[in-house]
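Sequence in, structure out. Go.
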Amino acid sequence: MLYISGGSTHLISFPEMMLPASLTSLNFGRFPNLEYLASKGFQKLSSLERLTISGCGKLTSLSKDGLPPSIVSLEIYNCPLLEQRCKKEGQEWSKIAHIPYVESEWWILSFEFIRKGRNG
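Output:
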């Protein structure tokens, strides 16, 4: 697991650096002016399974190319703009629809539960 806690007021895009392709869990937060996730930084994270984003009040957009298909859990806390856009009817929904478990401060989408509920 890699945990990155910012506080930097200059960063508007994350990650600015290349992260290791073998990374399985990433937790980052406290970037008050972060606006979007950079596609380049997420392209090679083919092993990433869990992503937690917190305390990024201006974050409105996930990577334009979406998140890696390997992600099985996405948690978003204290990112009100992104949380709104990630709801089922939101602009970012198509980028996270493949993720089995998505949680925010205000809602939880567990597609595994939905599938089991429909099938008995």
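Check: The radius of gyration is 14 Å. Residues 111-119 form the longest helix (9 residues).
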